[in-house]
Design a protein that fits this description.
It is built from four helices and eight strands, in the order H-H-H-E-E-E-E-H-E-E-E-E. By secondary structure, the chain is α+β, with helices and mostly antiparallel strands.
Length: about 250
């Protein structure tokens, strides 16, 4: 009996030591586990394979965006090129259309409502090119039985006066004369501070009639439009419009 008791006494500590050892191992394993309760990676950790896949997807999306941006940019560039080409030809469009068969305005056209194939701005540009530069001192439009509608423009350059007549339907220079006369008149501009259309509008507020012609020049340093109005059965009426003040005066 005594031996049996000693044997059990020796066995129990060994068993307890083994159990404690297993518990320590289990605890150590539990402390080292970084996964969540459901086996998924803990916060802050990431699966390398998932991370790599995500980065690849982002790169592909970025490449796709760059490609789309490049396509859009190229399309925009093409549009801009087309726009530039149109603006380069804009100055000659009216002449090209007229030269290809566009009919001039009839003799009784009303310049208040009908547009000449070669407008004032283009006629001035043609005159300045013909003279070789200078400044415009007079612009007028009128109908002539021999030449239909024609622009008459005076340009001052280096102490010389250039008188240039231009076909208002085709832009053709009909006549170019030069004189050595010194021109002391101020320069005029059909675009500023008042356009022909604005001057005509002011004139028609003062008096009714068909606008048969107009001039832009100066008198004693004052730049003004002179607009001729025709009424059926009556004499022509001339309206003067100051480009600086907008003052309208009916000529006697």
């Amino acid at each position: 009996m005594i031996r049996t008791m000693r044997s059990r006494s020796t066995f129990r500590p060994t068993t307890r030591a083994a159990a404690l050892g297993a518990l320590v191992v289990a605890l150590a394993a539990g402390c080292g586990d970084t996964s969540g309760g459901d086996g998924s990676p803990a916060d802050g950790d990431s699966d390398p394979s998932v991370s790599d896949g995500g980065e690849a997807t982002d790169d592909e999306a970025s490449a796709s965006d760059d490609s789309a941006g490049s396509d859009t940019s190229d399309a925009g560039g093409a549009d801009e090129t087309a726009s530039d080409g149109g603006s380069a030809d804009e100055g000659s469009d009216a002449r090209d259309d007229a030269a290809s068969g566009g009919a001039p305005l009839p003799e009784n056209a009303d310049l208040a409502t009908e547009q000449l194939p070669v407008p004032a701005e283009e006629a001035v540009a043609i005159a300045l090119e013909t003279a070789g530069g200078g400044q415009t001192v007079s612009v007028s439009i009128d109908h002539d039985d021999d030449r239909d509608w024609a622009w008459e423009i005076e340009v001052a350059l280096d102490g010389r006066e250039h008188e240039i007549d231009i076909d208002a339907a085709t832009g053709e220079v009909l006549q170019h004369e030069e004189d050595d006369d010194t021109v002391d008149e101020p320069a005029v501009d059909v675009t500023s501070p008042m356009t022909p259309a604005e001057a005509i509008d002011l004139a028609l507020r003062k008096h009714d009639g068909r606008v048969s012609s107009w001039d832009l020049d100066s008198d004693d340093g004052t730049i003004r439009y002179q607009i001729d109005l025709e009424q059926s059965g009556d004499d022509d009426t001339e309206i003067e419009v100051d480009v600086e003040t907008g003052t309208v005066r009916v000529e006697d």
